[in-house]
Design brief:
Elements: E1 2-7, H1 11-21, E2 27-33, H2 36-46, E3 50-53, E4 56-57, E5 60-61, H3 62-67, E6 74-79, H4 85-90, E7 95-98, H5 103-117, E8 127-131, E9 134-138, E10 143-149, E11 152-157, E12 163-165, H6 169-175, E13 181-185, E14 188-191, E15 195-202, E16 205-210, E17 217-219, H7 221-232
Parallel strand pairs: 1-2, 1-3, 3-6, 6-7
Antiparallel strand pairs: 4-5, 8-9, 10-11, 10-14, 11-12, 13-14, 15-16, 16-17
Length: 233
C-alpha cells in the first residue's frame, strides 16, 4: 500500500484530494494535517511514504516542514501558487500540482510516486541501447547522462556519440541504479559518479562537464542546484 498523508489547511481542499485518491485501491490515507506542526507530528507517528502538501498554510509553508525533518517522506505539492515550482523541484518533489487538480493530473503524479518508491531493481550488468541503424551494449556506469526529448531520450555514453532512443526518461530512471544516477530535473538524468565539474555561466545557466564526454551539457538553475546538493552529501 502507498501510505499518504494529506497536509492542507483548507477542509474543502482535503475533501477534494480524498475524492481524487478514492479510485486508487493501493493508496491508504493515513492521516490529515491542517498545520505544519500537526503534519510534523503525524509524519513522526504514522510514517507515511508520501505527503500531498500545500505550500502556504496557517502562517507557515510546506518548505518549513521539509526543512525541519532529517529524512522527510517524498512529497507532491498541491497548491494554488505557481511561483514556487522551481523551489519545489529543488527539494526533490515528485510533482507540483496546481489547484483545482484534475483527476488525470493526480493519477499521473501517483504513477510517478509508485515508480520512485518501489524497491530499486537490481541493475543489469549490460544495457542494450537501440537507435535507428545502431545497437550499443554498455555497462550502466558507462552512461553519463540522459536528456529527455519528448518520447525519445538522448543517451550520452562515455566516448561515444549520443544515441536517440525511443524510450522516455522515466524508463531509464527505473532501470539505472540510484545512486549514482540522479534525476536532477524533469528532462535530465545524471550519473553523479561521472561529474567532472559544474561551471556557472549565469544565474540560470550551468555547464555540466562529464568524464568521457568532451562537450558540456547545459543545465538550468533548479537542476544544477539539485545536482550540487547531491554531490555535496
Amino acid at each position: 500500500m502507498l501510505r499518504v498523508l494529506i497536509a492542507d489547511d483548507e477542509p474543502l481542499a482535503r475533501r477534494a484530494l480524498r475524492r481524487l485518491l478514492a479510485p486508487h485501491e493501493d493508496v491508504e490515507i493515513v492521516g490529515e494535517a491542517e498545520s505544519v506542526a500537526q503534519a510534523m507530528e503525524l509524519v513522526g507517528s504514522l510514517r507515511p511514504a508520501l505527503i500531498l502538501l500545500d505550500i502556504e498554510f496557517n502562517g507557515a509553508d510546506g518548505f518549513d516542514l521539509l526543512a525541519a525533518m532529517a529524512d522527510p517522506p517524498r512529497v507532491i505539492f498541491v497548491t494554488a501558487y505557481a511561483e514556487y515550482a522551481v523551489d519545489a523541484f529543488a527539494v526533490e518533489a515528485i510533482d507540483y500540482l496546481l489547484k483545482p487538480v484534475a483527476q488525470p493530473r493526480l493519477d499521473a503524479a501517483l504513477d510517478r510516486a509508485r515508480r520512485l518508491l518501489a524497491p530499486p531493481p537490481e541493475a543489469p550488468a549490460t544495457l542494450e541501447l537501440r537507435a535507428p541503424g545502431r545497437l550499443l551494449r554498455c555497462a550502466p556506469g558507462d552512461i553519463l547522462a540522459i536528456e529527455a526529448e519528448g518520447d525519445f531520450s538522448r543517451v550520452h555514453v562515455a566516448d561515444q556519440p549520443p544515441l536517440m532512443i525511443l524510450r522516455n526518461i522515466g524508463h531509464f530512471e527505473t532501470v539505472l541504479p540510484c545512486p549514482p544516477f540522479l534525476r536532477a530535473g524533469r528532462s535530465i538524468l545524471v550519473n553523479c559518479a561521472r561529474v567532472r565539474s559544474l561551471d556557472m555561466r549565469s544565474r540560470d545557466e550551468v555547464k555540466l562537464t562529464l568524464v568521457g564526454k568532451a562537450e558540456p551539457i547545459t543545465l538550468g538553475r533548479a537542476a544544477a542546484g539539485r545536482l550540487k546538493q547531491a554531490l555535496a552529501t
